[in-house]
Automatic annotation (TrEMBL):
PANTHER family: BLL6612 PROTEIN, BLL6612 PROTEIN-RELATED. This is RNA polymerase sigma-70 factor (ECF subfamily). Residues 175-275 form the DUF6596 domain. Residues 109-157 form the RNA polymerase sigma factor 70 region 4 type domain. The lineage of its organism: Bacteria, Bacillati, Actinomycetota, Actinomycetes, Glycomycetales.
Amino acid sequence: MESVFREERGRLLASLVRRFGDLDLAEEVASEAVETALVRWPIDGVPSRPGAWLLTTARRKAVDRLRRDRVYAAKLAVLQWEADREPPPPGPDPGADLPDERLQLFFTCAHPALPADARGALTLRYLAGLTTAEVARAYLQPAATVSRRLVRAKQKIRDARIPFRVPGPDELPGRLPGVLQVIYSLFTEGHTASSGTHLQRRELADEAVRLARILHRLLPAEREVAGLLGLLLSVHARRDARTGPDGELLLLDEQDRTRWDGPMSEEGAALVRTALSGPPGPYGVQAAIAALHNEAPDVPGTDWPQIVALYDVLAALDPSPVIGLNRAVAVAMRDAPQAGLELLDGLPGRDRLRDYPPYAVARADLLQRLGRLTEAAAAYRRALELAGTDPERALLRRRLASVIESVREGEG
């Protein structure tokens, strides 16, 4: 049942918002439909088409709510007929050439009338099903800040009467960067979960890949769409090798590369050629970096000079602290740990990374490799405080224990 709810929630919300044009109403009746299912399904069994069952139940609950609001009185006859008499709609076809309602709403939530910082947060929270805390982590922001941003965004949709519709061809390019960011953020949460007992939320990563494929079919000439899909495929190709038999986290140098998905990796590399057929964009460059990792026989055999060169290009396109962090790690692999650490400690905007787990992990690793074990132990403790999943915490505990043991041996 949990799997069904997780899978169907986004589709359910999108269908309800399209039909009723009210985001708050859609979320409320979707939650009520799930609550009803939790009571009914253990007794009656899970329906053969759970998505259609949830949608029908939610629509009837929406009609009940609207009946109590005189503003909607003129609509009730039509809505009642739809809710009570129309047969349940077929489930969405994952292979359809046109985007499903969720992707349509991704473009709607990327409307230029909305503040830039609210577009992705709104979509991730209400259409992709992430919690407010997960959205906050994706944007390196406090949860309270993101919560206020969501409230303001919904108010803006109501006040500006932003329509829930598919934008026309002339509007798509202006909406595209926001949509790409949303899909990428969704994949990021699926690739490494912000919390929980498992490292990955595979259903989110799979969903991001599916949406990126739909978007690529819709806009085949857009190089950055090809770049995003290539990036997601190249990274997702490693999914089965990232954890061991007991769910433990395996780093890149520990992974069995024969378990990487070869066809998916090759598809990602082919998309890189499309993405870089003109002036490079951020997603195309990141896709090229991921493809280089996949082509390497092992970590020492990786083309680190080329990866650093690509990060130089990426830093010019997107001079963010996270890009700077990744570039510093690559420089450490190309040159030496000291060079990478100096870059980390001198990053512009480093304060934004203070609560970013990969930053603490990178510093701890470089300090350990430099033999600065007391500092490394402190950095690992900080990384342990920030880690969100059990596999990450288990790995950091092992590393911290190893550093502490080395310190004791040195003292002895």
